[in-house]
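In response to the reviewer comment on reproducibility (Comment 2.3), we provide here a single inverse folding case reported in full, input and output, so that an independent group could reproduce the run without further information from us. The structure tokens appear first.
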């Protein structure tokens, strides 16, 4: 490709809409352009990277035994109503109607469509197992699109679905896809972690893992063990606990609880300062509405309620905290004064609270708290569970020595054991070897392909631009012709361009009538792995080879440069 004819405009300044470095560099490098919030055009360079990502995924899906299909992006709403997700999915689901007022959705995912397809195509156990996948554009009406390609309203995704006759088969399919994902992300040279996760709106009946790229801008927090391979998204992470204690677990007596005046105290920090105690000595009481039922949740003052764990425990469709101004309308004490003693609503107690010898809690009277509150004596321990976020330093739930540490991650892929969640609702059954009807056992496996452009740029850049891994770089070689007016330079550059092309090496020839400084700046911004500069030494049969990743430059004889480039490509392609 000649750069003089390439649709490429680089930007010297950071665009105003760029909010992270990957977004900035993809815009400045002419890889993408924004059409609307969360909606992007992929320019030629961006499309080349996208196609290489797709090719790697195609190869690993076929290696895993998956078969490619292509399903419609426009889906009948009736399918979503049949699965029960039409209302549950929420406002992110893009809904529309055709001219006949038939309802449709733009697919954010394809569980319903694939289940309906397999329901009609597979009737016998002899056709199982099978894994089907597609690469397609998805749509989600994000409330606040941001970070460029990392959170958009339209994006390219690979979604795969496995269909088995039993749970052992699903286990095998799941491990097969897990291994395929590891190979994909290793080929992309990404720093990542596979973590235990929540199934979210996809749902399911078994384990689920997210593949997280490690990055400071990540919206997800990963809790990982310092000693073993345990890692989980914060929303599902757990810590080692000795189980809850009851009144008989303590031999030392605790004084009777006592009411104290705490005027104007509303927060844990204010109470801790007022009483000169640590937050961990306070019992924090929060009130939630779960499917129209009011419950109280107790956590230590230095901990935060994990609403996902709470929602699962209650098996609630909807969960919302009752705001401070609504507490008294529900017959409760004002915010800051609510406590567990004498509450006439269900009280859920976090494990760590159940293990406290005594604590400080609201007295359920405005401007009063109680001291010497003892779990099991002063309030019941009937509903004890894990209702909090873990914190750094908590003990690992999988090993005895490890402690949990936090890092941030960007979700790149997510795999699920769906079980019979969709096959039961959509009547996707098969006949087993005994002629009995059974629901098909399903798994689901997604990768955000367009998101990977930003993830790779986020992990691979310097102050000058992107540094693409060889496996997905838009071109392998950037051939810089310093002066078009110099006949010897032009002859050498054109000769190398022809030879690289003949050898199947992807080369971008910068033949523009621009200064050397502009060409070098653009080359570093684009991030192509190898740069060959044809300059003043061309007449002596030498060119300069620069490695973008290390910045190392060497003079190389023209007659050996092609072989050296081949060697670099071979060494740098996993």
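Designed residues, in position order:
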């Amino acid at each position: 490709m000649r750069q003089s004819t390439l649709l490429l405009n680089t930007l010297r300044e950071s665009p105003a809409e760029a909010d992270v470095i990957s977004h900035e560099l993809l815009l400045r490098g002419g890889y993408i352009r924004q059409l609307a919030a969360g909606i992007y055009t992929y320019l030629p360079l961006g499309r080349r990277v996208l196609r290489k990502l797709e090719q790697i995924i195609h190869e690993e899906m076929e290696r895993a035994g998956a078969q490619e299909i292509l399903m419609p992006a426009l889906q009948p709403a009736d399918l979503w109503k049949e699965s029960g997700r039409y209302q549950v999915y929420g406002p992110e689901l893009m809904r529309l109607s055709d001219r006949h007022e038939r309802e449709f959705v733009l697919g954010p995912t394809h569980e319903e469509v694939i289940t309906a397809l397999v329901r009609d195509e597979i009737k016998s156990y002899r056709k199982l197992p099978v894994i089907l996948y597609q690469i397609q554009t998805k749509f989600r009406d994000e409330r606040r699109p941001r970070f460029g390609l990392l959170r958009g309203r339209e994006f390219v995704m690979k979604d795969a679905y496995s269909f088995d006759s039993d749970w052992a088969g699903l286990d095998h399919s799941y491990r097969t896809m897990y291994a395929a994902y590891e190979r994909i992300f290793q080929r992309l040279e990404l720093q990542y972690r596979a973590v235990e996760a929540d199934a979210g709106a996809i749902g399911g009946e078994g384990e689920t893992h997210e593949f997280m790229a490690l990055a400071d801008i990540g919206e997800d927090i990963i809790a990982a063990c310092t000693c073993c391979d345990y890692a989980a998204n914060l929303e599902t992470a757990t810590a080692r606990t000795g189980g809850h204690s009851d009144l008989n677990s303590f031999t030392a007596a605790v004084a009777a609880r006592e009411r104290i005046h705490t005027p104007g105290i509303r927060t844990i920090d204010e109470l801790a300062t007022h009483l000169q105690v640590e937050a961990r000595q306070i019992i924090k009481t929060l009130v939630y509405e779960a499917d129209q039922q009011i419950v109280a949740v107790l956590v230590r003052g230095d901990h935060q309620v994990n609403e996902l764990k709470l929602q699962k425990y209650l098996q609630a469709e909807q969960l919302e905290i009752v705001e401070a101004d609504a507490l008294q309308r529900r017959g409760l004490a004002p915010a800051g004064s609510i406590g567990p003693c004498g509450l006439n609503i269900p009280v859920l107690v976090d494990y760590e609270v159940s293990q406290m010898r005594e604590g400080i809690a609201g007295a359920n009277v405005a401007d009063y708290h109680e001291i010497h509150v003892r779990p099991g004596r002063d309030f019941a321990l009937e509903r004890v569970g894990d209702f909090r976020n873990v914190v750094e330093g908590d003990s690992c739930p999988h090993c005895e020595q490890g402690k949990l540490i936090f890092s941030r991650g960007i979700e790149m892929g997510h795999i699920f054991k769906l079980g019979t969640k969709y096959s039961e609702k959509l009547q996707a059954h098969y006949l087993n070897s005994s002629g009995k009807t059974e629901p098909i056992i399903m798994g689901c496996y997604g990768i955000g392909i367009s998101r990977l452009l930003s993830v790779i740029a986020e992990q691979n850049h310097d102050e000058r631009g992107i540094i693409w891994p060889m496996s997905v770089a838009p071109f392998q070689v950037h051939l810089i012709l310093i002066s078009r007016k110099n006949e010897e330079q032009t002859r050498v550059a054109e000769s190398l361009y022809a030879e690289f092309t003949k050898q199947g090496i992807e080369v971008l020839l910068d033949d523009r009538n621009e200064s050397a400084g502009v060409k070098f700046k653009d080359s570093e911004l684009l991030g192509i792995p190898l740069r060959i500069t044809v300059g003043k030494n061309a007449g002596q049969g030498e060119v300069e080879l620069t490695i973008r990743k290390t910045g190392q430059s060497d003079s190389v004889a023209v007659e050996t440069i092609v072989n050296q480039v081949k060697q670099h490509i071979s060494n740098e392609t996993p």
